[in-house]
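[Automated response] Your request has been received and processed.

Submitted sequence:
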Amino acid sequence: MNKRVLVKFSGEALAGAEGYGIDTQILDYIAEEIKSLVENGIEVGIVIGGGNIIRGVAAAADGVIKRTSADYMGMLGTVINGIAMQEALEYKGLSARLQTAIKMEQIAEPFIVRKAMRHLEKGRVVIFGAGTGNPYFTTDTGATLRATEIGASMLIKATKVDGVYDRDPMKYPDAKKLETLSYDRALEDHIRVMDDTAIALAKDNKLPIVIANMNEKGNLLKIIQGDYSRCSIVR
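Generated structure:
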């Protein structure tokens, strides 16, 4: 069984039906799923996007806000989500630490890879906020970077779909799920679930990316235990 993993959630996943903000029931559900991993001896890192608060690309669309500033705003959104996730995990009785790529000592530790790994070894869940700390990079890339740095055996992208399809399954009922695909095919096809920079970084470091449905209870644990029937793997 893979002992150390990184799970990436989108910010939108926390928003629920409202489409923005944080739905505490969803937060509680995610925390319960993470708890099941920890209780099974798995070391867990988490990255959460910030799209439920603000999306940098959208904020900069009309040119009033510069892209660099908009991206920093998005990074701050991920920290807001990180604080919420830390609280939810502690509510479940877990020990959690939030580390950020942008220093903000009053609310989080600065990201230090050795310290993060020490937390993981002690059974603490580590949440990585503020992306890579640089504009023009997505939280997918940030998640891939952190997974590589902490030596995770896989990166699980927890989404609303159960894998990668040859075309949009919402539009085409006959769409076929691709259970496995190579990094090269994922890059050639520009799969929507991960951006190309993240996939290229994963390829360079031979990091498997698992695309799975976060809404299927117990799915994360099954995947880590070797059941890949309800996901797609890029490797």
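Summary generated for your ticket: The CA atoms of residues 150 and 181 lie 24 Å apart. The mean pLDDT is 95.
If you did not submit this request, please reply to this message.
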